[in-house]
Design a protein that fits this description.
Number of strands: 0
Helix content: over 70%
Number of helices: 4
Shape: extended
Radius of gyration: 19 Å
Order of helices and strands: HHHH
Largest sheet: none
């Protein structure tokens, strides 16, 4: 996916992608509300900004000690989620401008 090179029928790829999107939407409609997922979704910019550095440093450690790819993936997922849950309140307190809790640039009325 990183190279945007897909073998096979591109129509099938898009049909499968849209089917996946719609199935997730239907599943979410049935589930309605999960507090942790809603919290991470509300402040997803924090998770999106810190998951790259976390994975950069944690992946080599996971590869060294966990020899199963699925175990590595779930371990890294758990680590990113835990660090995101812990660091979100810190980011909200220290830099609320990043998550649009405060104005980054103050604009005064020119009237």
């Amino acid at each position: 996916m990183r190279t945007n090179h897909y073998s096979g029928n591109i129509f099938q790829l898009y049909v499968a992608a849209f089917a996946g999107i719609f199935s997730i939407m239907l599943l979410c409609k049935k589930i309605r509300h999960i507090p942790i997922v809603s919290y991470l979704g509300r402040y997803s910019i924090i998770t999106l900004s810190i998951h790259g550095p976390i994975l950069h440093f944690a992946h080599p450690i996971a590869v060294r000690y966990l020899h199963n790819e699925w175990l590595q993936a779930f371990g890294l997922l758990g680590l990113v989620l835990v660090i995101s849950l812990i660091s979100t309140p810190v980011f909200l307190k220290l830099i609320p401008q990043v998550v649009a809790q405060k104005n980054l640039i103050r604009i005064t009325n020119c009237d």
